[in-house]
């Protein structure tokens, strides 16, 4: 295989060239039909610049625009108290619910 006239670039440079996130460069054209990828080490790959240009010419990938930065809102630590009736405690609510259930049970037994 001749490397004359070909330039190989790193994955990070390839991602910048295609306009895609660095993490997705290995997923694009995984079968290697258009993009020629060569293994340099255990996990290191270099990409052929001409094949990247051919991939862009085929318009198989569209550069992903960065999402606009959303303003982050802080969570309020202040509890809002609404004037009005006081809620009963959970203990009182459960006690009342149990008493009502027992009363219904007694009434159903009498019938």
UniProtKB/TrEMBL annotation:
Protein origin, superkingdom: Bacteria
InterPro entries cross-referenced by the UniProt entry: DNA-bd_dom_put_sf
Name of the featured protein: Helix-turn-helix domain-containing protein
Organism, as annotated: Paraburkholderia aromaticivorans
């Amino acid at each position: 295989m001749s490397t004359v006239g070909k330039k190989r670039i790193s994955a990070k440079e390839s991602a910048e060239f295609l306009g895609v996130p660095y993490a997705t460069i290995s997923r694009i054209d995984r079968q290697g039909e258009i993009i020629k990828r060569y293994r340099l080490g255990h996990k290191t790959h270099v990409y052929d610049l001409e094949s990247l240009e051919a991939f862009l010419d085929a318009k198989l990938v569209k550069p992903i625009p960065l999402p606009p930065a959303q303003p982050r809102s802080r969570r309020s630590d202040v509890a809002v108290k609404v004037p009005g009736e006081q809620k009963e405690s959970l203990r009182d609510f459960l006690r009342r619910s149990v008493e009502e259930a027992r009363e219904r049970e007694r009434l159903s037994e009498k019938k």
